[in-house]
Amino acid sequence: MKKHNQHLIDSQLQELICRWQDWLLNIKRYSEHTTASYTRDLFEFIKIFSEQKKTLLTITDFEQADIRTFRFFLTKRTQQHLEKSSIARELSALKNFFKWLNKNNYIQNTALSAISSPKQPKILPRALDVEDTFNFLDEAKNFSKKPWQGLRDTAIFTLLYGCGLRISEALNLNIGDITAENYLKIKGKGNKERIVPILPIVKEQIEAYLHQCPYKMHIGDPLFLGARGERLLPRIVQRQMQKIRLSLGLPDTITPHALRHSFATHLLSQGTNLRAIQELLGHASLTTTQRYTDISIEKMTEEYHKWQQ
Length: 309
Fold this sequence. Notes:
The chain is mostly helical. The protein has two domains: 3-114, Orthogonal Bundle (DNA polymerase, domain 1); 130-308, Intergrase catalytic core (hpI Integrase, Chain A). Helix content is 59%, strand content 3%. It has helices at 11-26, 32-53, 59-64, 67-79, 84-103, 130-139, 147-163, 167-171, 200-212, 234-248, 256-269, 274-281, 286-289, 291-308; strands spanning 183-187, 193-197. It has a two-stranded antiparallel sheet. A hairpin with a 5-residue loop joins strand 1 (183-187) and strand 2. The longest helix is centred in the first third of the chain and has 22 residues, at 32-53. The chain starts with 10 loop residues before the first helix and ends with a helix. Residues 271-290 and 295-309 have low confidence and may be disordered.
């Protein structure tokens, strides 16, 4: 916990927050990044609650917080011109902490359950059409300083599209994560593992890169390396994607994540079962995967209007 936050709460509340963080990391298996984000969001509430109370906060204050307390917090954050998505995220962290306090009998306070998250505009994921996707993959090798790096970039982008991976999942792969049966062992959000089939073309691109890579690699070493032999960073991939995007005249919405969306959208358009796509993508909820149904309808409508012209 950051020291500059400790003056807002007493030692008992500090200890409870530390226990909550430990629960998020070790029981819920949240990443350090997510846990840190949840903690920051919680302290946004603590700062406003402390200003309102004009005193050092205790666990008793949390137990006595009523619906007006939470509405005051939401009003203040709205007045600070915070986006609805950020307010919803902070509210989610706050609800998580209160739920944990209640479950472990530190307090009994369910007032927060009456507060709904602000409604947000429905934003559909951006996806490339099939032709643009293959043009993108063809161009990937042309924007690196050395041939082996071009092969590496092609392998990464082919992997994102061919297996529907998140960029973090692709860059966290190690030598040995591709099984003899041509499956990938992926560790996704919340450290949840899933098995994804790897297409022959994806494996071929990875093998072509490994054949030209100047660094010797062993089982357990990072699969994708940077110029100095270290694990490749996401910003390098994002920078390469920007170069390719500008070359092909593609919009800024085409990010590494767009290749994952394209994977799902193209599978759906070919009649793949939505539940199967959920498994491949590692979505915890089918609701998340159902967004691709909307994309396909949007795409069909777009094509219909083109045909009518």
